[in-house]
Structures are given as C-alpha cells and as structure tokens.
Design a protein that fits this description.
Layout (H helix, E strand, L loop, with lengths): L9 E6 L3 E11 L2 E6 L13 E5 L6 E2 L18 H11 L8 E4 L2 E5 L25 H13 L8 E6 L6 H27 L4 H10 L14 H6 L4 H16 E2 L7 E2 L2 E8 L6 E9 L4 H4 L9 H7 L4 H6 L8 H6 L2 H4 L11 H14 L4 H18 L3 E6 L2 E6 L4 H11 L3 H9 E5 L9 E5 L2 H31 L11 E6 L14 H31 L3 E2 L26 H5 L12 H8 L5 H9 L6 H12 L16 E6 L2 E6 L3 H5 L5 H8 L4 H5 L15 H17 L2 E8 L12 H10 L2 H10 L3 E4 H19 L4 H11 L7 E3 L3 E4 L4 H8 L8 H82 L3 H13 L8 H6 L1 H122 L6 H33 L4 H10 L11 H4 L2 E4 L7 E4 L9 H16 L1
Parallel strand pairs: 7-21, 8-17, 8-21
Antiparallel strand pairs: 1-2, 1-5, 2-3, 3-4, 6-7, 9-10, 11-12, 11-17, 13-14, 15-16, 18-23, 19-20, 22-24, 23-24, 25-26
Helix pairs in contact: 2-3, 3-4, 3-6, 6-12, 6-16, 8-12, 13-14, 13-16, 17-19, 17-25, 20-21, 28-29, 28-31, 29-31, 34-38
Protein name: Myosin motor domain-containing protein
InterPro entries: IQ_motif_EF-hand-BS, Kinesin_motor_dom_sf, Myosin_head_motor_dom-like, P-loop_NTPase
Organism: Aphanomyces euteiches
Length: 1193
Amino acid sequence: MTDKIRVGDLYWKKVGSNGWILGKVSALDGDNATFELVDEESGDVMQPVQQEVVDVALNPIFPANPLFSTCADMTSLHHLHEAALVKNLQDRSVLSNQRPYTFMANVLIAVNPLRYLEEPDKKGYIGQSLDKCPPHPYHVAESAYRQLATVRPVMQNQSIIISGESGSGKTETSKIILDFLTVRAMANSSEHRDSMDSEEPEVTHNKKESLRPSRVLSSFSSRNITSMLTSNVTLGERLMETIPILESFGNAKTHRNHNSSRFGKYMRLQFSSRHHELTGASIDTYLLEKSRLVHPPTGERNFHIFYELIRSGRTDLLDQMHLIASSDPEVVIESFHYLNRSGCTTSDILNDASNFDKLTDALVLVGIDSAMQLELFRLVAGLLHLGNVSFDEEETDEGTTACIGPKAEPSLETAASLLGMQKDILASAMLTKRITRSQGGRRNSIYYLKKDVRQATYSRDTIAKTIYEQVFGWLMRKCAQALEYNEALRDVLPYIGVLDIFGFEDFEPRNRNSFEQLLINYANETLQSIFNTCIFQAEQELYMSEHIHMANNVSLQFPFALPGQPLVTNTSDVKPLSERLNDTSELITYVDNQECLNLIASRSGGIFSTIDAVSRLPGPSDKKLNERLHTLFKRHACFPTPHPKEAHEMFCVVHYAGQVKYHIESFIDKNNNIISAQFEELIHISKSAVLKSQPLVSVAPANSKGGSVTQMFSVQMRGLASELEGTRCNFIRCIKPNAAMEVGVFDRASVVDQLRCSGTVQACSVLKVGLPTRILYAEVVDTYLPLVGQEVYEKFNCNERLFTQAICAALQFPPDAYRLGDTRLFFRTGKIDLLDKLLNVSSMEAQVPKTLVNYLVKRRWLNAVTKVMVYKMWEKLFHECRFRRSALTIQCWWRQYRARQELKSLKSQARIAAILAKWSKKLQVMKAFSGKPEEKLSLLNGLLSKSVLPRGQKWLLTWLGPLQRAMYVQKLCRKACVAFMVKQGFLWLYKNVKAKRAQLLLQTQVRIVLAKRRLKELVRKRRARDNWRKAIFGARVISVFVRQFNRVHLHRLETCQGELIAANESLKARVTELTERLKIVEAEKVSLASIVATNTALLAERETQLRMLESQMDMAKSKAAQPDSLFLRIFKFFTCSSTKTDGIVDESEVSRTAVLSDESSCREEISVQRVPITPPKKKLRNNHVWKVSRFCF
C-alpha cells in the first residue's frame, strides 16, 4: 500500500461510517503517513496546520481526483471510489452552476435540486448524437426510444427503472420521462407525416407545436372543461393528466417528502410497430399503503385527497358531504379522527385547493363526469365520518362487549348515507362477527358473536381500508380505459415501461422497521438482482463483443525459445497462450443477492412462506412467528442472530445494502389480507356506483393458503421481474441531497448512505475490477495522424487497431495495464495516467514516426521468421509423431502378451490360495470346537433349524454326523421313559380319584340335612325381619308427614310475619306522610284549624287501634306458646291449616277507615290493611320439634 502513496498528493480519509475528509500526505514513514487537512474550496492546507499520523495498513487512504473539475460520466474519473463519487456529485450540485444529473457508465444518477430548474430543449436530444448530449432524463428516454425504434428481427421492449428513497425526486423524474416520450412519439409521427405529405404547410406547424411540453391541461379551469372535451385531446396529454389523480389518492406528506408516493407504479407506453407512435398506456400499482388511511404516522399527513376536498372551497359540494362544521377548514380537519391523530394537517409546499381543481379537471379528462365525481367524493367523505364512529363498553351475557355510543350515532348515520349502506347493517358488521359452520351435523349454521372495543375498532378500520382500496382500484381501471391500452396486442406491439418504485428503507435507529419495510426491501432486492444482471452482464457483453484479449507480445519477442537461447517472458505472460488470448473470465465479478432473495421469498421455505404458515395455525401470534423464523433460519448466512436481549422481538436480514433489523410486531395482522364474507356482503349491497362496479378481492377461507399480502406481493414482484428481464433496462438512481429538504445543502453522510443502498457503490467496486477507462481507436488515430503523416499511417494498411497497438508498444505500456478490443482501447482502473501519456505527445513528437516504422518493420520481420520457424517445428513434430506411433504399436503388442501370461499365473495362484484358505478355515473351526460337545450340539441345532444352508457351511453337517446319530438315540430313550412314567402316574391318579368320590358322596348327604335345617331358621328370621321393617316404615312415614307439615306451617307463619312487618312499615310511612301534611296544614289559614283538630282525634283513635292490635298480638303469642293437642295437629295436617286459627287476626277486627274532610270537600281514606300476626320463629320451631318428637315416640 505504501509503495503507491506519494508525498504531496491529495488523499481521502474515512471518518466515521459515512464521512470523508480531504488531506495531503506531507511525510511517509513505513506504514505511517502524516496527513494534513486541506480546504476543499481553495485546495490549500488549513491554517493552523492540522496534522494526523495515519497507519495506512489499518486505515487505508484513497487518492483524490484533481480539484475544481468534474466529470459528466463518473467512470471517467481518474480514481473511482466512494469518496470520489460523492465529491463529484457535490461539485456538480453547486447552486452557481447546478448540474444535478451525472452518468456512471449507463446509469443516470439524479440529485434532487429541490427547486424548479429550467428544462433543456427537447430538440437537443431528439435525433441528435447522444455522446455529445449532457446527462439528463431526456438522454435515457431518447436512448430507450431509439432502441425501441431500431429495426431488429426480434422486438426489443424497453424499461426505465427509477428508484430512490422518499423525497429523492422519483415522481418528478418519471414525469420528465413521460413528458419526453409523449413528445418524442408525436415528433416521430410528425416526421412520417412530413415524408408522406410534404406539401401541406400545416404539418410543419403541428410538428413544432408537438415539441412543446404536454402540461397544458393543468392550466385549464373548470369553466372551459366542456370546450376542452370537445377538442381532440391527444393520448399523451391524457397520460400526463393521470398523474394528478395518482398523486391525490396515492401520495401523502411524510417526514422525508411533502409529496411522497405511498405506492409503486409501473407505466407501459405502447407504440405502433411501424411508425412507433404512442397508441396506448397502462398503469400497474404495487403495495398501496392502506394502513396510512386509519393510522398515519406521527408528524405525517393522510392521503392528499382528504385535505384537498375539505380545502377545495366548494361550499355546495362540502355541504352535501357534511364537511362544513365551521367556516375554517382547519377546524373541520381537526374534527376527524383519521386526520387529527397524526398531529400534522398542513404542508408549506402543497396548495390543496389548487390541486383539487387539477384533480377534477383530470377526472373529467379520463372519462369521469360530474355525477361519478360526486359518488367518488361521497365515498371519500364517508370514510372520514366512518373514522369518527367510536365505541363504548357495555356488560352483556357474553361479557364486556362494544356498542356505539350516543355521540357516535350522527357520524354512523352520515357515514352510512354517504357510503350508500344501511345504518343497521354497517353497525352490525362492526359490532358482531358472523360464524358459519362448514362441518358437522349443523352444517351451514350461522352464529353471531359480539366484539369488544378493540375488535370493533379493527373491523371499522378494515372496512375503511377495503373501501379505499376499491376506490383506488376503480380509479386505476378508469385511467386504463382512458389510456386505450391494447391488452390483446401486448406481445405484438413494442412498449417502454417506466417503473417508479420505493427505494431501500432502514429506519433504525430513529424508528422501527416493520412489515412494510420488509416488503419494500424485498422489492429492492429484486430490482438489485435485475440491476446486476443488466449492468454487469451488459459490461461483460461489451467485452465479449469487442473480443478483448491480453495485449501480449507487444514488446516484439518470439513466443518460443530460439536455438541456443533461453525463453524471455513478460511478467504478464505466465499463462498458456490460449488463456492469454482470451482472458475475460475475471473481468466482471459481483456479489449475487440470490441467496437473500431465496431467504425472503423462496417457495420451499422462505420468510414469506413461514409467515403464511404461522398465520394458518390455530391462535397465530407474532411471538410464534419470531420463534419459528429463528429456528428455521438460524444457520442461514443472510439471517444473523440479533442480541439476546432483542431476539424475542425482532430478527435481522442481511441485504445487499447492509443488515436491517425488523421488529416482529403486527406482522400477522398486516399480512392478513382476507376480506371476510360479512364485509364483502356489506360492500356488495352498497348503493354506490363506484363500489358496485369494482370487483372485490376473492374471499378465502381461514385455512386457505391464499389471501396473504406476502404471497400476492411476491407473485407481483416475480411477474414484474420476469417482465423487466425481458426488456432492455435503463436505470435512474435518484438521490436526496439532505434530509431537511433544504435548497443548496449537500449532506455527504446521507448521500453516501443512499449510494450504498442503491447499489451504486457496489457498482463502482465492480467497475474498479473491470476496465472502466476506454478510448476509441479513431481518437488515437486523430491525435497521432498530424504527427506521423498519412504516409506512415498507410503503411499500417489504415488498421486503427494495429496502429494503436504500435503506439502502446512505443510508449512501453505494461501489457497487463490495458487490453485491445475491436474498436476501443481499454485501461484497467487506476491506469488513467497511461491514457494521459497516450494523449500527451508533445514530449516525443520527433520520435513518433521513426518509432512506429521501426515497430512495424520489426513486427513484420518477426511474423515472417515466426512463420518459417513454426513450419520447421511442425515438420519435425510430424516425423517424431510417426516414429512414436510405430514404437507405440510394438509396445502395445508386447504389453498385451505379457499381460495375458501374467493373468494366467494370477488365476492359478488365486485358485490355490482359495483352497488353502478353505481348509485353513475348516481346521480353525474344528480346533475351536474340540472338547466342547455342548457347543457342538448347539451349533448342530442351529444348522438343523435353517431351511437352506449356504454352500460353505454344508461340510459342518458331515463333520457333526456322529453327534447327530447319538442325539437321535438319546431322543428315543427319553421318549420311552416318558411314556412309562405317564402310564404309572395315570394308574395312581385313578385309585385316588375313586376313593375321594366315595368320601364326597357321604359328605354331600350330611350337608343336605344341615342345609334344610338352616333354611327353615332363615325363613323364620326373614318373616320376623319383614314385620319389623313394616312397623319401622310406618313410623317413618308418619314422621315424614309431620315434618312436612311443620315446614309448611312454619313457611306460612314466616310469610304472615313478613306481611305484618310490611304493613307496619307502610303505616309508619303513612304516619310520616300525615305528619308532614299536618305541618303544611298548620301553615294554612285559621279556617283550617277545625280540620287539624279532627285529624288529631283520628290519630288518637288510630293509636288506640294500634294498642289493641298489640294486645291481640300478645294474646296470639301466648296461644301459640301452648302446645296443640294430638287431634288438633292431625286435623291441621289433613286440612292444610285452611281453617282460621287464633294466631290470625280477623279482617273485621283490624280494618278501619278514617275519613278526613275539609271545607273544600276533599276526602282522603286511610286504611289499615290486614296484618297476620305470627309468633316468633325460633319459639315456634322449638315447640313443633317437641310436638313431633312426642307424636313419633
């Protein structure tokens, strides 16, 4: 490293992860370099001098390009590395001479100027030489159009891929591309019309008008829309007017961009196959951020359409939408839950009212009349009112469930009206869940479960997101109809695709990466794979088309050793000749990201399929998903293990741009894209013409594999990648200069991060290995032709390649520093000084002609001598080959004879060895079993148990034959002995059985006699026991009846006592009421005194009655205390106490009526209700217990 560092040169030193500082090496001591900081604006060493000793072995420094100069193509930089790229972009972004566009090979890097710049004239690119045109999106569009219009046997479709982070200018760049292509197609059609009819002067006029930008419709007002519709609006103008529709319904203000596209789009511009006129266009959208509708991030806005509608100023329209709650639109916006929860409702750059006017004009232009616009805006307003529907908790039989509170009723009614739905059905869809059984005996049975507040809120948001998605899809379908895309001729007509898609995202550490970032980064991985294929393989194809080979033998040396002389070789010519002539295998090497793509979206077990699998499990959760991911991919190279403290809530993926942490929260919910049948029916029965005309997403069952966001998005990305790979891709990388979106500020750290995420730095690393510096042979000839003259050049037969090779040899270029193609001279990275030396001929003007002639003469002489020597060598080689072939024939015959003899000897030796081995094995077995009869016997039994013996074990039966015969004799003897013993045993058993039978008969007779006696005794006892049981049962029956009677009577007494207590309470309440009335009467006139006296007398009489009732109660208690006679108790039992007893006071004795009268003839009746008087419960119970016990016993 140190041998390449020169004292006094400028170098870049890396500071931190993304920073670079410029300095000069003032001293060098081994690996230690003294680094002095340099002012980039002046190029002088900073004062005071700031020195630092850098160990270049550990912290390498990179050479800097000359200051105060920039390159339109960064592959032309002398030194190509990250710092050089950023410095070149920064210098070209200076406000004084701002040039925001720069090429890197065939990739356009666009730095957002954050202000409106005057666009160059399109005529400077249409049909002009692109080599002389400055970098601009017009350059890329013109190149794509020319490639499309080139006559080829096979149609070559084109695509322009625009990528970058939010706020980098992707949308504006796509507008520039679309604007140029529409104008370019009209210009081309005008040229054909001029060639067909050049006599009409109006054609030239129309051609000039077609070269103007097609943004004229945005300036029209609503009052002249009718006249505009009657005119012939071109397809290009309609295409440009779809952009306001896409921006209003798909863009929103974010932290990074005031007009951020929250979806990806791919626009196809279809051209005719003959004159390449614009005949149609289509728009495909990807990954609309529906979650923003219900929960916009803090500090960001919802979709533009809501603010544009409220701030439109159209009172009649807003009145129909119930959006005029106040004269101030800000108050209206703050009143909606979906708009005020983020804390941001305004934008300093956007004009919502003006954008709404552009939107309405664009809607009319794509065929949406005022009536359909009204339906569209009703749905938009209905979503806002639906978001204001809040839920309260209520206690039901199913527990704590959700209900719509009184405050939310107006919002629900308004939302249902605007959405064209019935209020009750909409509320039911949010509050209840319908379950239909598909299996079992109650198949097709329907059940309804009430939801809690969280579930109801989720259902409300799901309905809102579904409706908004349907509205967005309906708008895309209307735009497609207006753009007249011919789907039937898709594979016949050529097209140019413009892809505007989100860039790589990593919000750590300021924010968290979630499910959306995984999808976005997967899309960028797919595009990066296409980038690798197109850019790097295109470079490889260029090398192959140029037939690049090593510039060997430029020093004019013999390729072989001369007789008596050693072979002199170059340091580069160490490979075989065939390899040195075509050594391009390692020119282009790059890191393939296919492993990361397989990790994420592999159908056989990637992250996406794992998410779907966990979602189909019973009771899915994010925790289960995270555990499954860590279990399956813990050994994957692109799935590193995070810190143990964070592993339970996140996982990591190594992308091409770096490692990204993803938090697992809400992955399952966000992946679920299944629309329930209940929501589908709700939208289907809507009266809105927009919702009815748009087909819904098919409903998938809970255990279905379809319906997930990951599956649909991966299918979309694979289809997009397949389509892009079938086209010729052109890339535009958009860069945001600073996060604050300030004009004139260039944040190097942010730009470096974006370059890494876009793969630009990796591309530079690849180009460093390749041959980035190149020059045409024609340029070299033009440079040297005035010096050498035409005569010298003609000696080379006007061969530009041979002439350039002679110059390189004359300048003594190292053979490994450059390579020769068919039309260009290629230099390796870092060899730009050789190019400077090649073009700087002032130092050798006088020697050039002579050196070139000498080289040519020596080369021709060398070629002639080489041909003669090669001929001699081939002749000698021919004779040697004939001699060697004859000797080889004799050697082959002799070797065959020797081989046959040796084979016979080996076969005989093998037979003898086999016999010896067989006998040796037999002897070993016999020796092992000698003196062991038991083991021999077990071996014999084992052999006899086998049905078939192997050939090598049959000799064992012959050897063990005597033992087998002895075993047979022993078997016969044992059988005879067993038969004799069995016979003797049977006789002995017969005698014993006969004696035992006689004893058993005698015992049987004795037992019969005893059994009869026992039977008689048991019958007598059983009859006595039955009589006793009957007596006890009767007593128990009487006892049960008595107990039931006591319980019934006790219950009646308790009831009566309760009624008496209630009557006393009512009397006391009545007395209290009368006392209050007396107080009122006392305040009356003196004429009411007589009435007061009468009432006092009545009260005294009532007290007397109360005392009489108390005395009667005491008498009843005393009577109740006396025990009843047996006859009275039996009588009460059978009559169920229906007769009147002394314990109950007669109604005639208690009921009295008092009449109060006054001068106004007002009467009031006071009645004493019948109050049954019962004795105390405890005493009564005791008495009854005593009576029952006396009666039973």
